[in-house]
Design a protein that fits this description.
Structural class: mainly alpha
Oligomer: single chain
Strand order of the largest sheet: 1-2
Strand content: under 5%
Shape: elongated
Helix content: 55-70%
Number of helices: 9
């Protein structure tokens, strides 16, 4: 039982982490998550699901402890059932993401391309979203989604004949203090220019995001595996406790 208490406590901690992650997705306004969260309703829905799963996981940890302490078989059975449903849901979600990754990638590309096309430093209504994308380009040292050429579709830059460029893309030391809005070219060529004339990073943010995922793939898989192992362990312990409670109750029956 002592080992079971430790596992149930781990579930409460795990639930708190999942709950906190869901809240962070909704509250974050300065990273790539913010770009997705403010542009894609599906990510908001996912964040609410994480909050719900986190709260349910914490509740299950409490029910598991309560069932183990008081030897209540129905609580342990409920704990096992909910845990099995969550584990199956997680596996199904992972399979959906894996087989739909190209569709998700296209949706993400469309979101970012629309953001770049409509980027306007004077538009206060989209300030948080634009600041989040500037933060991404600054931190990853990238420009555009596939490359700096994406910014040639920006309406403001078209009106300025491409004689300005996004400051957050800059690889020039003089622009280090400016990480948002547009910067002007020092020497425009015949009052017109192209992205090739801009002092910006060549790498697109898509490559930067994919590189980040590959670099952190081991950590992501490790966390997912750890969560699955804890869930399986909880299921095994709940079933074992149910059987032990049944055996103990049977031995307490007086012999005739």
């Amino acid at each position: 039982k002592s080992f079971a208490y430790v596992v149930f406590l781990l579930f409460q901690i795990l639930g708190a982490v999942i709950l906190g992650f869901g809240i962070w997705i909704l509250a974050d306004k300065t990273s790539f998550i913010a770009v997705l969260q403010m542009s894609s309703p599906s990510l908001k829905t996912g964040a609410y699901i994480l909050i719900g799963v986190g709260g349910l996981t914490m509740l299950m940890g409490f029910l598991g402890c309560l069932g183990a302490v008081n030897e209540i078989r129905c609580l342990l059975g409920l704990y096992f059932t909910c845990l099995m449903v969550i584990l199956i849901t997680q596996v199904a979600a992972g399979l959906v993401i894996y087989f739909q990754k190209e569709t998700l990638k296209e949706e993400l590309s469309h979101i970012v391309e629309t953001l770049i096309e409509n980027y306007d430093p004077l538009n206060d209504d989209e300030r948080n979203l634009q600041d989040a994308w500037d933060y991404v380009q600054t931190q990853i040292a990238c420009c555009g989604w596939t490359g700096a050429q994406d910014w040639e579709n920006n309406k403001v830059l078209i009106n300025q004949s491409m004689t300005a460029y996004p400051c957050s893309c800059s690889n020039s030391s003089k622009d280090l203090q400016v990480d948002s809005g547009f910067c002007n070219l020092d020497v425009p060529v015949n009052s017109t220019a192209t992205y090739a004339d801009w002092p910006v990073h060549e790498q697109g943010c898509m490559d930067g995001v994919e590189k980040w995922l590959k670099d952190n793939l081991g950590v992501i898989l490790g966390v997912c595996t750890g969560v699955a192992v804890i869930e399986l362990l909880g299921m095994i312990l709940s079933i074992s406790l149910c059987k032990n409670i049944h055996s103990e109750d049977y031995t307490k029956v007086p012999k005739s």
